């Protein structure tokens, strides 16, 4: 009876800490580890299970990191979009006509860990592999100036050229 009990306890313990993923590979059920299964850039709708786990790690939002100052958070977002456009010009990558929804996940130091995106229906047609490569390259050079002790995220949209964004939205206080 003692061996049976010990076997049951071991099986329960192992099943609590591990699970089978869709590919029958053993995966530790720890969001910090599981998030590493994601590519740096992916389209919204891909990697749904891992994407959902990101919210356990990146549960704070840009607005919170900006001390609930909506203007500051908006300006930081728009500055990032402007930097993205500037970087595209530097490397001769054509973003004109691209309209996308973005979900950005930042580390505490303001560096970007993940970007998920989805092209809007009225966007210029662009190869997703090219756009993903551009965003991945941008992540390597961009760092938002923030003072944060937590990882954070933000949903937003972008359209290029940014000159097409209404002037009032681009004004800084």
Write the layout of secondary structure elements.
Blueprint: H1 2-17, E1 18-20, E2 26-28, H2 31-34, E3 41-43, H3 48-57, E4 60-61, H4 62-65, H5 70-90, E5 99-106, E6 112-119, H6 128-141, E7 152-159, H7 167-170
Parallel strand pairs: 3-6, 4-7
Antiparallel strand pairs: 1-2, 5-6, 5-7
Q: What can you tell me about this protein's structure?
A:
Helices cover 42% and strands 20% of the residues. With 173 residues, it is of the alpha/beta class. The chain has a five-stranded mixed beta sheet with strand order 3-6-5-7-4. The longest helix has 21 residues, at 70-90. It is globular, with a radius of gyration of 20 Å.
Keywords:
173 residues; 20% strand; alpha/beta
Quick structural summary:
By secondary structure, the chain is of the alpha/beta class. Helices cover 42% and strands 20% of the residues.
Tell me the count of domains.
Answer: 2
Provide the spatial order of strands within the biggest beta sheet.
3-6-5-7-4
**Major pleated sheet:** 5 strands, mixed
State the order of secondary-structure elements, H for helix, E for strand.
HEEHEHEHHEEHEH
Structural class designation? alpha/beta
């Amino acid at each position: 009876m003692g061996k049976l009990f010990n076997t049951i306890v071991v099986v329960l313990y192992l099943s609590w800490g591990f699970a089978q993923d869709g590919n029958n590979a053993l995966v530790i059920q720890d969001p910090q580890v599981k998030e590493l299964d994601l590519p740096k850039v992916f389209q919204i709708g891909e990697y749904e299970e891992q994407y959902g786990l990101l919210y356990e790690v990146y549960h704070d939002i840009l607005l919170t990191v900006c001390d609930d100052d909506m203007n500051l958070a908006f300006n930081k977002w728009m500055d990032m979009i402007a930097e993205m456009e500037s970087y595209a010009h530097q490397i001769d990558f054509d973003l004109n006509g691209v309209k996308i929804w973005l979900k950005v996940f930042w580390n505490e130091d303001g560096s970007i860990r993940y970007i998920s995106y989805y092209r809007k229906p009225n966007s210029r047609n662009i190869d997703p592999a090219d756009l993903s490569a551009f965003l991945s390259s941008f992540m390597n050079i961009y760092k938002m100036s923030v003072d944060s002790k937590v990882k954070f995220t933000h949903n937003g949209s972008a359209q290029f050229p940014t000159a097409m964004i209404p002037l009032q939205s681009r004004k800084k206080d």
